[in-house]
Design goal:
mainly alpha, two-stranded antiparallel sheet, 3 helices, elongated
Length: 146
């Protein structure tokens, strides 16, 4: 089944189809009205088909963009799920009473997009928390508890 014919899109196709047909019908009506002597109707007769074309063009772009985004997300999820990211466990003596603390250390090739300031701040908080197992996020400078 084509992605364009999935049930969530069918209602939108129907609405755009009815709207485009209505615009074309109004353009035809304006054209006949213009032929009877109303000069202003020529402009409207040309505008209605343009409205129909714009609606179809816009709807096509929306559907393509959403399907493309869904495909990219699905592809990224699949590649991330199948990628092998090596984790080695480093055991070291934590300063807790419970004995050795185990923390995973990434040795894989996972890349983080730290060009985004929000992602960079989040990753900085994670590194700060990972530096000492006794730290809590509520102790992070400038953090309001969560």
């Amino acid at each position: 089944m084509s992605a364009w014919l999935r049930p969530p899109w069918l209602l939108g196709h129907l609405i755009i189809g009815v709207a485009a047909a209505t615009c074309l019908r109004l353009g035809w009506w304006q054209w006949h009205h213009a032929l009877q002597g109303s000069g202003r109707s020529y402009g409207y007769a040309l505008q209605w088909p343009l409205f129909a074309a714009f609606g179809v063009f816009f709807w096509t772009r929306v559907v393509r963009e959403r399907l493309s985004r869904a495909a990219r997300t699905s592809e990224a999820y699949t590649s991330a799920a199948t990628a092998t990211v090596g984790l080695s466990w480093s055991f070291h003596r934590g300063e807790t009473d419970t004995g050795p603390a185990a923390r995973p250390t990434s040795t894989g090739t996972a890349q983080h997009d730290e060009d985004d300031p929000d992602v960079a701040a989040y990753m900085h908080r994670l590194r700060w928390l990972n530096a000492d197992p006794r730290r809590r996020l509520s102790d992070y400078p400038g953090c309001d508890g969560y």
